Amino acid sequence: MTPATPAPHPDNVQIIGDLLALKWSDGTEDFLPMDRLRAASPSAENMGERDLTGTQYGGTTQTEFPGVTVTGWTVVGGYALLFTFSDGHRTGIYPYAYLKDLGRTIGQ
User: Which CATH number characterizes residue 31's domain?
Assistant: First the structure.
């Protein structure tokens, strides 16, 4: 049995124009448009919450956040980043695996 390869983590995070640049420990890079990163926030405020029966409560129907930028970030544990956005949003915790997926789906 071979040991599992550790999931990549960001070695460097920078703002370049309207993009958030992530250089990963596996050598790859992702460039995420900040307004689309905001739209993809995994927060309950953005996505809503489900109860035990699967009924969803809350969430937003807003899918575009033109002009919204990242103003800062914090490492959460060893597994995620918490972004602060120019519209005041700062409740979505972005696990590294989710950010890698966003790199494939919304990245440039």
Answer: 3.30.2020.30
